[in-house]
Amino acid sequence: MPVKKALIIGAGIAGIATAIRLAVKGYQVAVFEANNYPGGKLSQFEQEGFRFDAGPSLFTMPQYVDELFTLAGKNPADFFKYQKLDVACRYFYEDGTKLTAYANTDKFAAEVNKTTGEPVEAVKKHQANSSNIYNITNHIFLERSLHLLKTYLNRDAVRSIFRFPQIDAFRTMHKANEGFFKDDRMVQFYDRYATYNGSNPYTSPATLNVIPHLEQQYGVFFPEGGMYSIITCLVGLAESLGVKFHYGSPVDEIILKDGLATGIKVKDDEIAGDVVVSNMDVWFTYHKLLTQHLHLFPKKILSQERSSSALIFYWGIKKESLELGLHNIFFSTNYKAEFDHIWIDKNVFQDPTIYLNISSKYKPDDAPEGCENWFTMINVPANTGQDWDKLIAAARENILKKLTRILDFDISKFIVCESILDPRSIESKTSSYQGSLYGTSSNSQFAAFLRHANRSSKIKNLYFCGGSVHPGGGIPLCLLSAKIVSEYPQPPKGGANC
Hints:
Guanine Nucleotide Dissociation Inhibitor, domain 2; alpha/beta; FAD/NAD(P)-binding domain; 19% strand; five-stranded parallel sheet; 19 strands
């Protein structure tokens, strides 16, 4: 019996995970990637002896990676190793406050009490609320399609639906956090989690208070070999299952016949397939690969507000700082003004919150001896035609001033090399429309239900995975999108041995 073929557009982490899952189901899988390397946003580069993970730097929910090895009949620990961190992140406030977010929840609550005076009970109450939202939403709204009737026709779904008011969808994240804490520093601490999916805590629903649960309850991890090792390990797993990767092979068109996706066009070659899965941003999937089928476009979905983007300075620093850890946050003094600049004014605030990741803290060979590799990022709006050269120059100056002031040494004197990633280059390198990191924003109560589904309702055999579709952006959710996609197509008759 002929083996069914699955064609995957894009070798981002969701595309790779989908390839693994479909290969396990018995499909012959080919992945076509425009770049000469896999990973999408989760990439790496080297410069003057420094190695940088170019994209996502926070690793949570490693069980979703482990699950892929288990599905393939392999022991995850034999192929992919990581360690749990004792400290999730270090926080710096302009008033001199320094807060260490310990992985141990009791230790963290005690630290908050000692540092800000907030009662231990307030922290634990917020943690319990976050856990409750997760338990209600995870198996129904994150691990399954929201666009299939069968998702709602089971006991767990009915139970979750009756508990829907508990997910706090009708007030903002900021308003909810003000209800938990009196100290503005702790409100700001928890508001920050909205940025984990590129949203605004002053408008997004308090349901997003589920995000701290992933970090505080499950933990934060560091992969042995750095973040990019996630990609290399998964590509190795996929190839061991027979998946073929074609790099430097941008897809030009999804071929349709009688409302059915029958293949793709790559460099004028037509490649037939039984299943087509796009890991490309859904906006570009339609506007680049389906341009002859405008009547099939989901126009309302494609016109939704995009998530925020990022401006990243990759700095090789000829100095080591004992005060800093793997993950560090330097808060803005006026959080509301910062988000207003991003979402209303569409520009960059003069006092942005800075995220600083230093992988050489756990992987010393990422920097020369006595040096550190600084991944220095601020949240910025998606690209709508701003003067980015001007904004970047001003942001760089403001970031250096802020870090110099808080860390008490002139950062600029220790920068030996620099690279920059901005919304324009994010779009060009990863086909993320407007450089948005997470597809559409989550700035409304029902944003989760308005994301593009994982399969087309108008084109048979066409599926979607990755951060621009359900359930959202970030490594864990991208991996879950692959899981959802793999449950749609029926396995070839005869199973994996056909």
